[in-house]
Amino acid sequence: MHEEFLMGNEAIALGALAAGVNLVAGYPGTPSTEVLETVAKRRCEGVYVEWSANEKAALEVAAGAAYSGARTMVTMKQVGLNVASDPLMSLAYIGVKGGMVIMVADDPGPISSQTEQDTRSFAAFSKLPCFDPDGVSDAYSLIGEAFEYSERYGTPVIFRPTTRVCHAYASISVKDESEWKRNNPEGFVRDTSRWVIFPRLSYINHGKIEERNARLSKVFSDSGLNTLHKPEGSRLGIAAGGISYAQVRETLTAISDVKPALFRVTTPFPFPEEKALELLRGLDEVLCVEELDPVIERGLTYVCGKYNLKTKIRGKLTGDIPPAGENSRAVVDAAVTNFLGIERNSKAPEVTDSPPPLPARPPVLCAGCPHRASFYAVKTAMRGRKSVFCGDIGCYTLGNAKPLDMVDTCLCMGAGVNIAQGIWRVEPDTICFAFVGDSTFFASALTGVVNAVYNRADMILVVLDNSTTAMTGHQPHPGTGVRMTPAAGGEHGGKISIEGVLRGIGVDAVETVDPLDQTAAVDCVKRMADMKGVRAIVFRSPCIVLFKPVSAAVIDSEACINCKACIKTIGCPAIVLSDGKVKVDGAQCTGCGLCVKVCPKKAISIISR
């Protein structure tokens, strides 16, 4: 054993490696991304790692390996679980041979997601065991437990850290590589009665799943995973899970005169009913502190009803805990001290809601981002024409901000392609655009393009190809020809042509243009807008983060009339006002040249650095 200062995601990765994981597959998404990247960097010989095309593909690859006796892990964020839900729901009925952990990072807030959905509720829906770590050290040890339970009971197990666990740091004890478990898969053994799902097998296995989960509820109550500290004479109790449990403990540590019973729920499903019953007996009230859904609160309420207990359960459903968002340190402290009837004084911890306010920093496309030029080219070309711009998930979602204002809809990854078709069916005189990134194109937009061609839609697909998965940390994708970033080994893979795929599907017209060449880009959009059928424009220019700028914009102060067209038109953060004058922030400017095209007085030029 040795000490390491680790991010929560790194701890999860090292815990999986120590548990003998053989294969890890995933799709990038904050706050989960660093788990797979760390496995790729720290793995020993024989551990296979891949960025899959999407979460569904990742889960199915891992399932095949688990059928063969391998220990596998799949990584994603909470909305990625929606993509993987089709195979997951069936896999819950089929089961696995090797241990299989589905690491789903939840994002209370949400900080960087479309939704606040709670994977604990999804675990109950899919009838799969769920583990909820409360911190970095716990995440490291608990991931090993998850593999053990998965293998012992032949079921996938969901592992649910939240953002504050994933991105927290701590010094923890970890095993040396020589101490890591070595798992040698038996290989796939043909057995159609086990591995081929059909109605009769599903019916039989459903009954087995219900029996297993009832048994696991008892096992989890006795396992030590769910802990209960109940001082003699306690009349009040607190139940918590995940990072909220750690926050509750911090508050209780500072309180000396009131010591409630404290119940830590590590396995929210199957709910540890017997342990919960032990908590509830003799208590008047229990406060449930948890993020997102009232999972623990409903579990305790059910136990009270089942055993005819009069204990009052408080939490989100009673308004004692906020129904949405993160439980900040201040929120937890206030809820606990109010519940215990403690005045805010020297005995209670002093917690402020936040540090002094920072300057407002709304999300914006980076200076020099080629997406800005792409949006501006379409906006310029469509001026005066009836059009709609369907967006998608990625950096380019930020195209909704003014002054660009070029994202009219955004639902989920890949949805814009089909939404554009739906709008056109209702308003056939509208020119419908669907913007999608290069990574999202491969992850979830392909079926939408197939649908458009098959059903003879009239729309323009715009692929914003910046040669990376930028928003989640510049991971590769099938269009890059790279399987892993240089930091993770720099492995090469097959490079798939976006244009080739589009032509193969049967798209009527496909053109590729550099959006920074505004004249060519605008002409291309106008040409496509005058056509009918399914057409596609690939705007190809690399993400500005991928190379070091060699030039920058400068403003001729004599020629500049301070009309601010450069600011009002493209909204580049490198163009600023200083003492009422338009200036270029040289630290941000990349020399992309888009501002040169929009200046009516030709007062901006590009020079070498």
How do the strands and helices of this protein lay out in sequence?
Layout: E1 2-7, H1 8-18, E2 23-26, H2 34-42, E3 48-51, H3 55-67, E4 72-77, H4 78-94, E5 100-105, H5 119-126, E6 130-131, H6 136-153, E7 157-159, H7 163-166, E8 169-174, H8 192-195, H9 199-222, E9 227-229, E10 236-240, H10 243-253, E11 261-264, H11 273-280, E12 285-289, H12 295-306, E13 312-314, H13 329-340, H14 370-381, E14 387-390, H15 415-426, E15 431-437, H16 438-454, E16 459-465, H17 498-505, E17 509-513, H18 518-529, E18 534-540, E19 551-555, H19 565-570, E20 575-578, E21 581-584, H20 594-598, E22 604-608
Parallel strand pairs: 2-3, 2-4, 4-5, 5-7, 6-7, 10-11, 10-12, 12-13, 14-15, 15-16, 16-18, 17-18
Antiparallel strand pairs: 1-8, 9-11, 19-22, 20-21
